Amino acid sequence: MPGYKGHLAGGAAVGGGALAAAVYFSYLPNDIWLLSALFAIAVMASLFPDTDTESKGQNFFYSIMAITDILLIVNHYYQWAAILGLFAMLPALGKHRGWTHTWWAMLLVPAPLIALPWIFFREEWTVTLPFYLAAVVGYFSHLLLDREF
C-alpha cells in the first residue's frame, strides 16, 4: 500500500486529469481559482481514508484542517469552523481500513460539500457539484491505490 506521498501523487494525478478533462470538454470554465480549489479538494480527499491512523498523511491532513479552521474563526465563520471540526473527527469513530475504506464512504463523506451550502444558504446543488465530485475523485484515487476497487 502506498504511503501518504503516494496518495498525494495519486490524488494529484487523478484529480488533475479529471480537471483537465472537465475543462477540455467544457464542463468547467478555465478559471484558475476554481480549478485550484477543486485540485486542492481532490488532493486533500485522497488523504482522508488514512486519517484514522497515526501517520504522516494524518499529520499533514490535520495541519491543513487546523489552519483552515483557524482562518474560519479569525474571519468570524464560527459555524463553518464548528462543522469542519466535527467532520474532521469522524475517522476516529472506526478502525483503520474500516468504514473509511469503503465505496459508500467515498460517496457519503463529501456529501456535506453539497448539502451544507444548500441548508445554510439555499445554494443550488449544481453550483457545489464540482466540489463534491473533486472530493469523490480524490477519495477514489486513494481506494484505487489501496486496491479497494
Automatic annotation (TrEMBL):
Keywords: Membrane, Transmembrane, Transmembrane helix. Coiled coil: none annotated. The keyword ATP-binding does not apply. The keyword Membrane applies. The chain crosses the membrane at residues 6-25, 32-48, 60-90, 102-121, 127-145. This is Membrane protein. It comes from Halodesulfovibrio spirochaetisodalis.
